[in-house]
Design brief:
Layout lengths: L1 H14 L13 H9 L4 H7 L1 H7 L19 H12 L6 H4 L4 H4 L2 H13 L14 H11 L1 H4 L19 H12 L8 H8 L3 H13 L25 H7 L7 H6 L6 H6 L12
This protein binds heme C (2 copies).
One heme C binds next to helix 10, helix 11, helix 12 and helix 13.
Length: about 280
């Protein structure tokens, strides 16, 4: 009996380890490096993506209000790094962390698979915008301060795991600047962290408003079927497209995996309030 209880307890402690307070740790270089170099299995990635649908959406487009970022089309290596950082508490993301725990997602191979799948998804160019009247000022700031790392068109750099910023929602970009400045992204780029501390609020709004106007290349888009529209807007993904792209596994499947650790989707989504209190563009 005693043994059963301790086995049970040991199991519970192991299972609950995701809930321990976020520790600042260097990424487990082993798992991280392995994930970067493994050959991904896209079919398995599609299956694992069920863990992501409830927030990032079946298309990986996130939400134009920036609560959830667009992850479709992001560089696979960047997704791997962010998953590792979130998993290890280097990036405060209590909502998503449980979904990246080894128990739910798996190890290096699974991280590589789901990252490759998200990276392969077509992007929406209809991302949330900032203050477009500041975009010209922002373009100059971008060229002088950001292009050397993120690329002229903000296409990112796979070699150095520098994120692609094209098509990202303005409010999300803004929140990341806040998080980087406040040290909530503890494994961010040092040079960038130092650089953005010197920006005035207007410069920051301007540069991020410009970044939000940068579209992914057309070959990476999926426009709503039957639409001839070429202009950009902040519309949510069309309902019929959502249906078309719905994964085969019902979303409720996510919760079967999570029930043992006592999470439900409602709590997850509603607990976003603290981090999404970002002011709308002014
Ligand atoms: C419960 C909601 C939720 C689920 C489920 C979820 N995420 Fe997230 N994810 C978020 C939120 C919220 C953020 C942004 C956090 C922030 O502002 O720092 C995020 C951020 C990310 C980022 C960082 C993007 C960037 O450009 O910096 C990646 C990559 C990501 N998620 C991938 C995934 C993958 C892959 C899955 C499935 C295995 C997943 N997420 C499941 C809520 C979720
Ligand atoms: C020295 C190189 C460098 C410079 C300069 C730089 N960045 Fe970054 N940036 C990075 C790296 C690397 C990351 C990813 C950090 C991480 O892994 O968390 C990043 C992350 C970001 C993110 C978060 C993206 C995401 O998807 O989570 C944003 C937004 C961003 N940079 C915008 C900018 C802007 C705007 C500028 C110019 C004002 C800039 N960066 C300058 C290297 C740089």
């Amino acid at each position: 009996m005693k043994t059963t209880v301790s086995i049970l307890l040991a199991g519970m402690i192991a299972g609950a380890s995701w809930a321990s307070p976020p520790a600042t740790q260097a990424p487990d270089t082993d798992e991280y490096q392995r994930a970067l170099h493994l050959t991904p299995d896209l079919n398995n990635g599609r299956r694992l993506y069920i863990n992501c649908v409830s927030c990032h959406g079946p298309e990986g487009w996130g939400q134009t209000n920036g609560t959830y970022p667009q992850i479709a089309g992001q560089l696979a290596g960047v997704i791997i790094k962010q998953l590792e950082d979130i998993r290890r508490g280097n990036r405060s993301n209590p909502i998503m962390r449980a979904f990246t725990s080894p128990r739910v997602l798996g190890g290096a191979q699974e991280i590589a698979d789901v990252a490759a799948y998200a990276a392969s998804l077509p992007m929406t160019p209809h991302n949330g915008q900032g203050r477009q009247e500041l975009a010209t000022e922002g373009a100059t700031i971008y060229k002088d301060n950001c292009a050397e790392c993120h690329g002229k068109q903000a296409q990112g750099d796979p070699q150095d795991r520098i994120p692609l910023l094209q098509g990202q929602h303005y409010n999300y970009l803004k929140r990341q600047f806040d998080h980087i400045r406040k040290g909530l992204r503890r494994n961010a780029d040092r040079k960038m962290t130092k650089q953005i501390k010197g920006f005035t609020p207007q410069q920051e709004t301007a540069v991020l408003s410009y970044v939000a106007t940068l579209s992914p290349p057309k070959k990476n888009w999926r426009r709503p079927a039957g639409s001839t529209r070429t202009s950009r807007s902040t519309h949510a993904p069309r309902p019929h497209l959502r249906a078309e792209l719905k994964p085969q596994i019902p979303v409720s499947g996510v919760f079967h995996g999570l029930r043992p650790i006592g999470l439900n989707l409602h709590q997850c989504i509603h607990s976003t309030t603290p981090i999404s209190k970002n002011r709308p563009p002014q």
